[in-house]
Specification:
cytoplasm (chains A, B); EC 5.3.1.9 (chains A, B); carbohydrate derivative binding (chains A, B); about 15% strand; isomerase (chains A, B); five-stranded parallel beta sheet; SIS_PGI_2 (chains A, B); Rossmann fold; 15 helices; homodimer
Chain lengths: ~425, ~425
């Protein structure tokens, strides 16, 4: 992974990081790296995620999906980290599999989807570490019922990834479903490179071993200096900008197939770092499209943003046909890729011109190896940032209140506190 | 439209708006409203958008799309405001039309899309007010060429919406294509309820007149007080929270079909208000999914956010089947809609519990009339907010630099300023 933080330096941007401040920060990066390595060595909760490139078992994943290899449709039933890693890989890498991620409980959406797909050609992957996630279990019950109604034996078309206990484990045991173990010590948002995220990629025909090989490259590249390690360069720079006022991180890949990557990043960054009143707010964007939507604000709005520009250096290109239309000669002989690259570089320069910090991230191309590296490096960047903020990177305590309240409402056991109303209609 | 700003008041939230501050702000709302009405009366640039419910001509739109009524696929070629309004309507309202919005210049995406659809069954709507937008023209040239290669007469399957001059107008004249006039005085991001956004809805079989009727309701509801006008209640509260520190507006609809609405809102809000160092940064979210992604940050991160919760009060529901699984009795006899509503209310309460301001927006259901009202009211909210900030709501000067630079790069006429590099790889 290639990371260029030049446009985030104080000589270019405000807020920006003085180069000597980055050098001082590097002492903290060295200490943080030692702490991270110690956590990895002891397979501590969370840090264990950074060992997945070594501990994940691609053969077990291949075995689990093998019975479903001829499926035309994948229904991944899981929410949050149990959806986004898989969706990121499948959306980026493409393939013929018609993959759907049932990660919401919108009845109209669920009904439309179930009416649209051929359930007899569908493999269902139910993913919940706890085995008790309300949305996931509710959706699974609906899917199972729809299969029964359609005369499809759901037990022949379902496999699960879950922890050692819970409803899903019981279900797998009872019906002899293929069951993958959710990796120990790995929070959902760090589980793309495991039995949580990789089965979808395998079903779509992608090389799981190559994804992990890319991730291993990232692991081997972890060193004690942000000047030698692209993951840490990114994490440290984002942190240093946030504490200088760039509280928003606009993640803007220049590739439609990486749009889901921006969502995955948004979860990783928000849920890991958003605590104790700290944390940078991710904003998902897409180049070049959002130049016609968000760029005005990024350039001329409040100075509270870092813009992260991501692209692949190689791709399948497509020429722009010659035209009789006047004034379009600048497009002549060019390609859509040329146009996209020109917009990438012009946007980067336009942010610099107005003093808005940006970081450029490049990968060689969008393939298994590069994706594995990209996801691993951003996970490592996030873990480093968590160390620098001094937060508990791997927990998400603030979501529990709402979960309990929703459960209380549904069971009728308790209501909500009285709400202050000021209604206008 | 029902707007409840109770949870944005200072008695509930920090930042929050003291109720007497809202009352004082209402004087400014009254003045702003007078200014808005004057602009509407004179059909001034931008303000003219708020007259679209009266000035749009649904019959002309129906006539333009009528020759293409049997098309199975819509390819909407346009970017930014020339895509998002149409996409918002079609994604929300559904229908059998297979609609695609070519709003990026990613060659791999364009190629995959063109290989995937039956061009002989496709209607192409090319949308550019100026008629010269680089991305749109490049994509159109590619689409036209693909149709020719496939033996499809593109002149029989294409219509345009554009201004009085430019490449697209010339093209329509030369090839006798049906051509709709882009509305005068209406910036792209305010053009959903016009010849820009409505043709896609018409092609998908929706009642354009009902959409406009909903918008007319919104227009009739514009009054000089935020306490009487839901659009102004929203715009004034968002503004009042921003100036008190809530620089981020997380737009979180609880309906998959409104996900694109959040994108439309993000453009409207960012490009209209993001200037002079001012403007609230929109963050697109989706309920209930993002409870498992962004909620941790919203509740426990920096106190810089307003969360806007949007839902429809009625929908087609789907029961959750009974289950033998233990511990799920709280779901028994319920529906996915019950679960979604419980999550909506629990999330709203959980934000209040941690003192994070939120606003609740409800529409009766997701249909033509309600959508027209929703879009109109958010446009009016944005125009009001622009008055309160004192910015030029209807321009986007900060994007020109990058457009010129990209054009210079492509034509080879000029390069970019030298870039500061600090590369780690």
């Amino acid at each position: 992974m290639h990371v260029d933080v030049g446009n985030a330096l104080a000589v270019e941007a405000s807020p920006g990081v003085p180069e000597d401040a980055l050098e001082r920060l590097d002492d903290r990066v060295r200490d943080a790296h030692e702490h991270i390595v110690a956590g990895m060595t002891r397979e501590e909760f969370g840090y264990a995620a950074l060992n997945l490139p070594k501990t994940a078992d691609p053969a077990a994943i291949e075995r689990a999906v093998e019975p479903f290899a001829d499926s035309e449709v994948l229904l991944n039933v899981g929410i949050g980290g149990s959806a986004l890693g898989a969706a990121t890989l499948v959306d980026a890498l493409g393939g013929d599999l018609d993959a759907h991620f049932l990660d919401n409980v919108d009845p109209e959406h669920v009904t439309a989807l179930l009416e649209d797909i051929d359930l007899s050609q569908t493999v269902v992957h139910v993913v919940s570490r706890s085995g008790t996630t309300a949305e996931t279990l509710a959706n699974f019950l609906v899917v199972r019922d729809a299969m029964e109604q359609a005369g499809v034996d759901w037990t022949e078309r379902t496999f699960v990834t879950t922890g050692p206990e819970g409803n899903l484990r019981d279900l797998a045991d009872e019906h002899d479903l293929p069951a993958l173990d959710a990796p120990e010590g790995v929070p959902g948002r760090f589980s793309a490179l495991s039995t949580v995220g990789l089965p979808a990629a395998a079903l779509a025909g992608h090389d799981v071993e190559a994804i992990l090989a890319g991730a291993r490259e990232g692991r081997a590249a972890l060193t004690g200096s942000l000047f030698d390690c692209p993951a840490y360069a990114y994490g440290a720079t984002a942190y240093a900008l946030d504490v200088r006022g760039a509280g928003i991180n606009a993640m803007m890949p220049y590739a439609e197939s990486l749009e889901t990557f921006a969502e995955w990043f948004a979860q990783l960054w928000a849920e890991s770092l958003g605590k104790d009143g700290l944390g940078q707010t991710p904003a998902r964007a897409l180049g070049a499209t959002d130049q016609h939507s968000q760029l005005q604000l990024y350039r001329a709005g409040p100075r509270d943003k870092l813009v992260t520009l991501v692209r692949a250096r190689e791709r399948e290109d497509r020429g722009i046909p010659d035209t009789e239309l006047e004034g379009l000669d600048y497009l002549a002989g060019g390609s859509l890729g040329d146009l996209l690259d020109a917009e990438f570089e012009a946007t980067e320069a336009s942010l610099a011109e107005s003093g808005v910090p940006s970081v450029r991230v490049e990968i060689p191309r969008i393939d298994e190896r590069s994706l594995g590296r990209l996801l691993y490096d951003f996970e490592a960047a996030c873990v480093l940032a968590g160390e620098l903020y001094g937060v508990e990177t791997f927990t998400q305590p603030a979501v529990e209140w709402g979960k309990d309240a929703a459960r209380g409402l549904l069971s009728g056991e308790r209501g909500l506190p009285e709400k202050t109303e000021l209604v206008v209609e």
